[in-house]
Amino acid sequence: MSRGYLATRWDRLNAPPRILGVDLARSLAVLGMFAAHLLWIRGPVELAEPASWLAVVQGRSSILFAVLAGVSIGLVTGGRVPLAGDAAATARLRLVVRAFVLWLLGILLILTGVPVFVILPAYALLFLVAVPLTRLTAPTLLVLAAGLALVMPFVQVALDALPLWSMIGGHELALAIGWHYPFTTWIAFVAAGMGAARAGVTRRHVQWWLLGAGGALAALAYGLHAASGADEQSEAMSYLGAVWTARPHSSGLLEAVGSGGFALAVLGASLLVCRTVVRWAVLPLRAVGAMPLTAYTLQLVVWAIIASVVLGDSGDLSGFRDLEPFWPLTLGTVVFCTAWALLVGRGPLEAAVDRVARLTVRDAPARAAAPRR
Fold first, then answer.
1. Is residue 367 part of a domain?
2. What is the secondary structure of 150-205 as a DSSP string?
3. Could you tell me which residues come within 8 angstroms of residue 286 by beta carbon, excluding any fewer than 6 positions away?
4. Positive or negative, the Cα torsion across 242, 247, 253, 254?
């Protein structure tokens, strides 16, 4: 293997156009979902109780994943300046193809019987809903994200109460569209990520803005939740109680604002950290973030295989958690992704999805220059 080949792999992971802080944030989202899936986590976060801090991964990891989906969409559709013309049409059609492939992969993962709410079907729908938003600028996207976060939780309560979900086939429909991560509200997180990409996530002042504004939103929403004494009982008793909550996966108003802000703060912090020498210390984490689809899928496939062989049932959540699989799966994923990134390059599933999108939607032929008259 030539040194030139290894050098190109190194550059792919560490040099522009790769944005190191985005990769770091993605790794935190993926590994946070590992923790939410594989560890026994009891009770909410209590600042005075360090033992409870691990509960921060509940709900927030998947919302961070959604915000970063928005960042990726924003970057592939032009970054600070939205693409126009044939280039924009090609990028949008490829997003549609990627959405279809992600949905199929999500359904296959659901069929493994692993007892988690697979995020990929929701991810796919979010890609589709985001396609019309790719024309928008940063200010418009950020205002839209704020409006959706403030309005949609009021609608979401009614949507969750529809009799559709308790009818025959309702549960299967919910799984197929990822309703545990409802696109109707979660599009706010994607729009926020797209707005960050349009604002320029590589710009230092934008990174500080993400950290400061995101942290302020999180502190405000979580503070209001704590001050109001909101709990699951109050959620069940009234419509406003169901809206006024920051409980993970509630899609309540305070969760949308608080966890959305938390995700923006994590993104900003990750971008700032990767401006320092710490970026080399977190290289293995960045490798995971460079192939999040591969890491997420690999975890669930390995889980299904081990649980089926050892427990005889891939759906035995308690039995699998009791095997204490978090550290072996997490460390194994980090080692695999780091080795793959440095020796092979792009993640296998990322490369496959991109290949399908490019084969399905070809680049528009370059237009010949008009002859001079």
1. no
2. HHHHHHHHHHHT-GGGGSTTHHHHHHHTTTTS-HHHHHHHHHHHHHHHHH-TTSHH
3. 13, 20, 23, 24, 27, 274, 279
4. positive
Distance from C-alpha of 172 to C-alpha of 301, rounded to nearest angstrom: 20
Q: Distance between CA atoms of 97 and 88, rounded to whole angstroms? A: 14
Phi, psi of 49 (to 5 degrees): -120, 95
Q: How far is it, in rounded angstroms, from Cα 287 to Cα 289?
A: 5
- 68: in domain: yes
Asked if 52 and 44 touch (Cβ cutoff 8 Å), the reply is: yes
CB 194 within 8 A of CB 75: no
CA distance 101 to 349: 10
Residue 366 domain flag: no
Scanning the structure block, which residue is given the tokens 């044939």? 86
17, 189, 50: which is closest to 119 by C-alpha?
189
Which burial class, exposed, middle or buried, applies to 299 when counting CB atoms under 10 A from its CB (0-12, 13-18, 19+)? buried
In a domain, 224, yes or no: yes
Sign of the C-alpha dihedral computed for residues 62, 66, 67 and 69 taken in this order = positive
* Domain residue limits at 197: 3-360
What's the pLDDT tens digit per position in 113-171?
Answer: 999 999 999 999 999 999 999 999 999 999 999 999 999 999 999 999 999 999 999 99
Q: Which tens digit of pLDDT belongs to each residue from 200-251?
A: 999 999 999 999 999 999 999 999 998 888 777 788 888 999 999 999 999 9
Q: Are 217 and 260 spatial neighbours (Cβ–Cβ below 8 Å)?
A: yes
* Single-letter residue type at 333: T
69 close to 101: Cβ distance less than 8 angstroms: no
Neighbouring residues of 282: CB distance < 8 A, sequence distance ≥ 6:
24, 27, 273, 274
Our count of domains for the chain comes to 1
Contact 130, 190 (CB under 8 A): yes
CA–CA separation, 173 and 158 (whole Å)? 17
Task: Report, in angstroms and rounded to the nearest whole number, the Rg of the chain calculated over CA atoms.
Answer: 21
Give the single-character DSSP code of 369. Answer: P
Cross-strand bridge partners of residue 49? 46
- The structure tokens 């699951």 sit at 232
